[in-house]
Amino acid sequence: MKTSTLVRNGVSPELVGLISRLVDLIPWPMRRSAMGDVTLLLLDGKHRVAEDVFGWGRSVVEVGIKEFQTGILCVNDISTRL
User: What is the DSSP letter of 3?
Assistant: First the structure.
């Protein structure tokens, strides 16, 4: 039986809750980069696990990982959203 990424990396449910609360306090777009950092560090870069564990959108985490790795933040054009 495979062990989960959380168990393998020693991430407790309390730590998951703390990280969720702290990331929620960070304004966009830095929040996305923080999500990428957490995913790389604690979840071995697995964006699908981040979606399951933290409830973060997979595509958001994928962009956040790239932003964290490159140091370049993507610009959101929210004026075009409906």
Answer: P
Model confidence pLDDT, tens digit, residues 26-69: 998 899 999 999 999 999 999 999 999 999 999 999 999 999 99
Q: For residues 72 and 76, give the distance between their C-alpha atoms in angstroms, rounded to a whole number.
A: 13
Residues 6+ apart with CB under 8 A from 21: none
* DSSP 8-state code for residue 77: -
Tell whether pTM > 0.85. yes
Among candidate residues 80, 50, 81, 55, the one with its CA nearest the CA of residue 68:
50
Domain map of the chain by residue range?
Answer: 5-80
CA distances from 66 to 17, 45, 52, 72 (A): 24, 11, 20, 8
CA 48 to CA 50: how far, in whole Å? 5
